[in-house]
Write a structure and sequence with these properties.
41% helix; formyl-coa transferase, domain 3; elongated; 18 helices; 7-stranded mixed sheet; 2 domains; single chain; alpha/beta
Length: 397
Amino acid sequence: MRNQTAVSPGALDGVRVLDLTAYVAGPYATRLMADMGAEIIKVEPPSGDYMRSGVPRRGGKGTYFAQVNAGKKSVAIDLTKPEGIDLFFRLLDISDVVIENYRPGVMQRYGLDYATLRNRKPDIIYCSVSGYGQEGPASGLSAYAPIIHAASGWELSKKSYEPALEKPMRNNDATADFMGATHAMGAICAALFRRERTGEGERLDIAMMDVMHSVLAFEYQEAQFPPKRGRPSFIPVATKDGFILVVPLSLKNYDDLLAAIGHPEWKEKYPLNTQGHFKAWEGLMAGLEEWAADYTAIEAEAIISAGGCPVTRFLTMEESMNQPQVAYRGAQVEMRDDVGPFKVPNTPMRTTNSESRLRPEIAEIGQHNEEILRDMLKLADTEIDALYAQKVLHKKP
């Protein structure tokens, strides 16, 4: 494993974030900020983030929750009570960023909308992450990532790559959430940079629908200018015991591929730089699969890779996690809770002159109530005890 030696704190050291998010898009955005040194205060309802018990779980605890909420502090405040709102305002006074991913309108009902918070703290950076955005005819609709996958055109685009499919594929991933999270994190960092120059806060509105349209660049343009035959797809190639994916994207890649598999004559048989590109591509894929049938996936990958053409085996997640490259980069971290150890990905953002890493601590519900209220807000123990008695503050028994 390669060691990373940081010469200074994380790039976001000294930034304090009030995190009012749950599920994926918001929590992952703030997890990335925690990786870069920001102090994240997760403001949870009395029952805690509902993903704490989400699958997969061991002993009633979700390891997914831990992965996207690592390195954060937790306070559990009942925001339906006036005293809870007052506590939030006092935290706001000493914070830099507020992020939330409620359905549009919910924060306003709590009295925690941007206009209200800006009146109290004009330089606050306030980020909302939602399915369709804060305004417009669809803004009030409930939306999780699979809904946005279907509504953004992504799912039918994927179906178009597989003509034999009679209906869209099953949808069980959170791509729109994670893409929304990374865009939110980038927007927040840009707003912090701007505030350093202007002293002004910012209102950030991240819609997962916008994000998906932004990243589906080819599909977005092809919807306006349909190609006559479509783009050739990179097709899984069957081997003796699995599949490989070969991507001869450039003509040099193509030459390297044909030389590696011993068929340089295919360049004339399947010319990829002509008007018949699409038909030639289909022929190439069929020929490649016939060639690969004599090899295992590992053998076929090694032969093509040695020739310089991009190629990989299709790996299970377990196989991918155990690749030597993952270990070399320190791309995996062991976390531990009271049930036992488990592995999570380290931060994907590597830096040279500042620290960036996953902080493996997992906060229990309300674990940092006293620390934050006593040390940051300077509340006396008697005041904190009263808030517990009034059921404004909560923590895991």
